[in-house]
Structures are given as C-alpha cells and as structure tokens.
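Model the whole thing, not chain by chain.
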Amino acid sequence: MPTLTVDGIQIEFNQGQTIIEAARAAGIEIPHFCWHPSLSVSGNCRVCLVEIEKMPKLAISCSTYASDGMVVHTKSEKTLQARNAVMEFILINHPLDCPICDEAGECKLQDYAYKHGKGESRFEEMKVRKEKRVQLGPYIKFDGDRCIMCSRCIRFSDEIAKKNQLTFVKRGDKVTVSTFPGESFDNPYTLNTTDICPVGALTNQDFRFKSRVWEMSNTNSVCTGCSRGCSTEIWVRNNEILRLTPRFNQKVNSYWMCDNGRLNTFKHVNAQNRIDGAYIRKEGQLQKVEWEEALKVAVKSLREYKNSEIAFIGSPFATCEDNYALLKFARSLGVSNIDFMNHILPGDQDEILIREDKTPNSLGAELIGLKNSSNGSSLDGIMKSVKEGKIKALFVMEDDIVSANQEYEKIFSKLELLIVNSSNQNETANLADIVFSASTFAEKNGTFVNFQGILQRIRPAVATEEMDRALDGMEMSRWDKFGTDYDRWLKGKKYDAKPSWKIFTMLSAYMEGKLKYDMAEDVFSDIAKSVENFKGLDYDSIGLEGVELKNIKSEARLAGVKNI
Amino acid sequence: MSIQKREKNLNFFEKLYIPEIMKGMALTLKSMFRPNVTLQYPEARFEPSSSYRGRPVLVQDNNGVERCVACGLCARVCPALAIEVQASETELEKERYPVKFEINMLRCIFCGFCEEVCPEEAIVMSKDYELVFKKRDDAIFGKDKLLVPVENLKERIEFLRAFK
Ligand code: SF4
Ligand code: SF4
Ligand code: SF4
Ligand code: SF4
C-alpha cells in the first residue's frame, strides 16, 4: 500500500483518496467546512489548506490526491497562518449572532473560530447584510447573514436527495442561497441540510429555539418511520423529546434520514393522548385501575375461554422482545392463532431511504415466528373466525389495527374480550375491555430488524414512572444530573407505562409463570437461544451500527444500501 | 486521650487571667465612645454601593421589552443551576426572546457569573438583598419579578462598563 506522511505520522492510503480522506481514515482531522465525506468535492472554503513538501504553494487537502511518499504538514507555521487568514476572511461578514443562533454549541464555525481563529478581526467597515428568516421550504428557515457559502446544501439536494432545488444567486460578497424561481425546497430529505450546514444558516422550523444543544441528553436509537430503520439520536430535555437527528451508519442510512421520520415519529411520546396506567371497562367506560387489578382481571377473563377461542395479534411496531414475549405467552396458553398486521403503503418508496413498509420491525416479528406456518389462523383467518363467533377473545399488542382497517370495528363488536397494549389512545384501544399502557420505542430497550436483515438496538431516552435516569443507566443532561425534586426543570411528565414484554411477564406470573424476565436483555438471550437467525448474539455484540442477521433470504439484502 | 501540645505556654501573668480581662474591658470602654455603626434595620436601611451584588434582575429597555435574547449562557454558566430559560421566536428584530425566564432564589449564590457572561447586558446584579419567602415556590422568580426598567439600573450598568 502506498503511504504518505501527515504531521510526521506515516499512514497508508488507497490510490484515489484525497489527503483529507486519507488523514481522516487514520484519525487525523483536517479542518473543513465545505468538504463532506458523502458529497462531491467543491473546494471553496479553503480552510483545509495544508503545506505539502516540494509543492510551491499550500494546497487544499480535500481535492489534492494523496500520492506515495508525500509529506504533509497540517500544523506547520505556514498552514496555521493560512488557516487563520481564511478564518478571518470567512468571519468578515459573519454576524455576531451566536446568542440567538440555534447552531451555537454544535457549530463548526464557532468551534473553528475558537480553535483556529485569532480571536479578533481587523475589519472595521460595515458588514454586508443579507436576508434573514427566509422560508426556503416547508420545514426550513434560512438566514442569509450566517451562510458561509460552502454549498453543502446545494450539493446535498442535487446529489443525495436527487432534486436540484437550491442554487447560489448573485455574486461576490452578495452571493446567497436560494431556491430556483417558483420552486420550494420540499423534497423528502430537506432537513438533512440543517445537519450538514456547518453554520446556523439553515434551521429546522420544528426545533427552532426550543432548546440549546447542551441542555439535552442524546440517546442512540432507531427511527420507527419505515422498515429502513435509520440510526438516530433522540434529544431529550426535561423528559421530553425535542428532536431526532440521524446517526451515521454506513450499512443502513449513511448520514441521513427522511423528513417524515425526523418530524413525525416521536410526537406521540409526549402527546396529550398518552395512556397512563391500566384501564378496565366498567359500566361501559374505561376506568383507571391499579395494574395488579387489571392483570388479575385479564388473567381471569382469558381463562374463561378455550385456547381455540383466543387469538393474539403482535406488532411490527413493537420490538423483537415484545413480539417474542407475546408469542411465548400465547403458546403457554396453548393458543396458536397468532399473527400481526403489515402496514405497507404501496409506491411510497424511493431509491434513497424511504421504504413502503411503514413499520420498523416487520422482518423481526416474522423471524421471531409470528407468521410461522405452525401458527393457527392468519390475520384474515382470525378476523373471519371472530366474525363467525369462533374466536371470542383477542389480545392486540401495540398496533392500531382498527384505524388501519375500518371493517374491524364492526367485527370487533362480536368479541367478548378485547385486551390491548397501547401507548396512546386510538380506535383499537377505545374498543378494548382491558387496556395496558405500553412504553413507546423511546422508553425501552429492545431490538428491531430492518428490511435488510440488520438488527439494531433501541435504548430508553425518556423515563417512565418506573424508571430512574441514573439507576437505569440512561443518558443524562446536566439538568438531569444535578436536579432535585424541587426543580421545575426536572418535572417533565413520566407516564405509567411498561414495555409489552414486561406486561406479558407480569400476566404470566399470575398464571403458570412460564415467562421469567427481569430485563429486555433476558428476553433477547432467550431469542438468541431459540431463533436460528439470532444464534450467538447478545446486546453487547450488536454495537452501535447493528449486526447483519444470518440466513436472511430477503431480496432486500441484495437491494442493500446504494451509495448514499 | 492524647494531650495536645499548646502553641504557646502561658506565663504567670497570663495564667492569672485578671490582666487579660482588664484589657478586654478597656476595649469595651473605648468602643462606647466611638461613633455608632449599627443600623436600626428595617427602620433605617443599608444603601449598597454599585459594586454590590444583590439579586440578579433582567434589564427592561425603554420600549418595555427585555434585552434578553434567551441565549441560555447565564443558565449554562450558573454554578448553582438557578436559572432556567425557555426561548421562543418573536417578530421583533432580535428574533429570539425568553417566553420563560426563572431564577430560583434558593439556588442562587449571588456570584454574578450570569451578569458577567451575558452578551446583551441583559441580566445584572441589583441592590436588592431582601429575599424572604414563605414557600419554596415563592422563591422562584419569573419574568414578572425579574424585569426592572433600565433607569433603575443605571448605576450598576455604568459600574460594569467601567470595571467589567
Ligand atoms: S453560525 Fe455559528 S458562529 Fe455563526 S452565529 Fe451561529 S453559532 Fe455563531
Ligand atoms: S446554507 Fe449552510 S450549507 Fe448552504 S451554503 Fe450556506 S453555509 Fe453552506
Ligand atoms: S427512511 Fe424510514 S427509517 Fe429512515 S428516517 Fe425515513 S421513515 Fe425513518
Ligand atoms: S445570558 Fe443574557 S441574553 Fe443570554 S439568556 Fe441570560 S440574560 Fe438572556
């Protein structure tokens, strides 16, 4: 392998790599604004200038190919001088906006000004002012003053989102970013530009001014918007989710996520219609009762039916652990009518990320055995039997199947017993006789299998009533660490909800007690023992980017990730 | 029990105590003819100088709007985590303002860091030292109690401009 020397360290590189790429691969970060590992090279910010021996002038490391024997200095006198000059130049027209700028705290310009800048400017003239608060698209506000014209957003739109919607207009110091005349910046991936914009020029309308970045905790998770299962981070303050951001995962989503996933998959966690605790229908009304009472009533009622009169509906929205516990609980009752509902939006799919299967774990639920041929009736069969009065008791876990199929409402009136695990009020839960409030994806540990057969972990970011951030090892912000019961900023609502696997374990405890799990991890190790594709896995081995399950025969694996 | 060594062994006269008592009485006598420094609080009140750090307050500009842009730096720097700021968007030129600004006066240690860090000269230490509450909740001051017109804070602001 050819090698080059960066700051005295000899590193290997692949032919065709630029200096910045080679250095990055070896863990040496060369400052950059406009260069992005997933975008084409534009070379306009000049902050990545480095000194290369035997070259007459400094060269930009993002577009200079590494060659064998090259000697590069990223911290030499000449390089530092050039970098300072570039920083001073970029800051000439940059406003002193940090106090009102949402990017502060995660701003590349702020960081570099601190690390590589001189700390003062020699520029005494009036700064050029540009348009502020421009609505570029449905979710994005643009601040012309703060833009440093790196063109990342333009290249993203063109190269990744495949929609050429943004461009530079005007020239010289007046240059600014705009949509093409009559166009709106409205492709399904626009908000990724707010992540890659190195400054606070592009801001997420939904998150704007809601919180400082340093006030939130961030937890690694997975998006539940579709079967891509993009790796994400959940940002929480005062036990409330304020935003989701994509997390780099080469195999799944690269640096990106779609706007729908980012904006619409977490609002239900803190929504008004969250179910808090356990409910039983008394005199036609769902009334809140102690968990114990609801569990006992559920067990007693289930016992009144023959196992052929009972059916269980699992969920592709729930984790592998939840579905596995459901399966095991159903089997312990001798019930074989088990299935789950798919949620496919035909055609709502693209070559980038979005999948038409709108659930995060349908493959997982399938592998666990919820669609097994040894099961009794399928979903349609179960519904037919309910209609005919053959199945009289139904357990539905974490899926609003009545909203998804309006015919079910009428069919469900035939049921004598309907038990529902649900996080929010919905049409299915409203029809139930017994409701257990289920934790959302943001409140539990668990695993999802995406359409490629990649198994990823979700972790609790929001605490429920039974959880404690410190004791449960959750991510903590400074507020979480030092707050007390008397501090208003630590009084965010905690819901009385439990993960479904736990609800089944508790139900089981009132019966023969076959399910004995203390943690989601226990359920998973049981899965790893009994499900072929999961053999040999445990939570630690899943890591941050997930693992590819063995023996997945899906066309999806081949479809894999395109180069994004 | 170990016997500690004295730093200084008393000599004979000191052991008598009488001379020492006389010394003390002499000081008392002297003080009786000194000018009186005790204030008859609350009838008479202490008026601090502009370098005094009383409770932090928010500066309200002449147009009736707070100067604060809810940057959250004071909340971040506060070693006692006394300050909570919630920002929101405004149509005004400053774009950003605090919908909620609360200082928990039971947490505040009057260090003045918030005043020092504020980029907008929006939070300053006042001369108010009278902080009495009957309930914990009363100690949490919202914008209603924190906002003070800029005229009333002129002295402190001038002091800061001269010495900060
Ligand atoms: S873009 Fe960065 S440097 Fe510019 S005002 Fe915002 S935080 Fe400050
Ligand atoms: S808006 Fe941001 S990403 Fe786009 S050119 Fe300006 S600085 Fe770069
Ligand atoms: S592509 Fe799917 S998984 Fe990724 S962010 Fe969008 S909805 Fe979520
Ligand atoms: S530092 Fe100043 S401007 Fe920032 S939030 Fe505090 S008072 Fe407001």
